[in-house]
Amino acid sequence: MRKLLNTLFVIEPDAYLSLQGDNIIVEREKEKKRFPAHNLESIVTFGYTGASPALMGYCADRDISLVFLKRNGRFQARVIGKSKGNVLLRKKQYLLSEDETQSTTIARNFITGKIHNHKWILERMTRDYEQRIDVVQFKEISRHLSTILSEVRNCTDLEQLRGWEGQAAASYNKVFDQMILQQKEDFYFHARSRRPATDKVNAMLSFAYTLLAGNTAAALETVGLDAYVGFLHRDRPGRVSLALDLMEELRGVYVDRFVLSLINKKKMQKRDFIEQENGSVIMTDEARKKFLSAWHEKQQEKLTHPYLVEKISWGLVPFVQALLLARFLRGDLDEYPPLLWK
């Protein structure tokens, strides 16, 4: 169990939730924990055992949302009472999304987080593996990313912002292959290929980005936002545009580092992939299970959140960022604070 930003996260999958007075009772294997409900805005459960009708009624009466997620973080349902708060939040989201100037102001914080995190991935590589990479090139690209960051912070045009993001991504990708330190004969990265993935690295990146997009969309639904209406990514039928916005800052630090670790620790190997007749590369069924198991382990790892200055699991990061975005849209924060990792 974890309480963050007036939200109670129940991570244990076999917990039962009930009510006792004005307290939420979380019961698990003869152990009971009590949480005062008077200042809660939301309760989020991952693969819960059950919740009492009394608790659900109490939450509905007091505008406390009760969110049910599967163990892997996929959204199932959100139970709320009168939806006045939810309506106002989404209305603000839609209004800002229609205004490209306002959208740019929000989107540049997503991109600031992305480029900042890419820069510090490179800086860590120069610190930890200076004998195995081209340090001069890494430092040069790191400086270039710093220059782009300055442009992004002052950018007021959405198309120009996309251009800066594209430049930063191209620079970062130039040295991505050098960060593959093991199994170089089997794993390499020349460029990003999506549909289809044409090498093993891209196959893993695409799969992990899909998992992260699902988790991020669930996080946005959890706080009452519309995952399909974004600021950087514009509306397109069937595309979770806001989820893609929010995950920009997490791509490098969450997914790229995860995929690199699977290769460098030899958890994924050549035999885990199949090359098809059309040139696309896919994981075997067993490899996908292994990948998902490692992804679950990654979600349990801890980091100190730079804005909250609290230790949380990586699996909660999309939910915390969604909460912070909702608070900004409600006017509780002056701007959205992206995850700035070092």
Automatic annotation (TrEMBL):
The keyword Kinase does not apply. GO terms for biological process: defense response to virus; maintenance of CRISPR repeat elements. Transmembrane segments: none annotated. Its cofactor is Mg(2+); Mn(2+). Keywords: Antiviral defense, DNA-binding, Endonuclease, Hydrolase, Magnesium, Manganese, Metal-binding, Nuclease. One of its GO terms (molecular function) is hydrolase activity. Its EC number is 3.1.-.-. InterPro entries: Cas1, CRISPR-assoc_Cas1, CRISPR-assoc_Cas1_C, CRISPR-assoc_Cas1_DVULG, CRISPR-assoc_Cas1_N. Homodimer, forms a heterotetramer with a Cas2 homodimer. PANTHER family: CRISPR-ASSOCIATED ENDONUCLEASE CAS1 1. Belongs to the CRISPR-associated endonuclease Cas1 family. This is CRISPR-associated endonuclease Cas1. It comes from Shimazuella alba. The lineage of its organism: Bacteria, Bacillati, Bacillota, Bacilli, Bacillales.
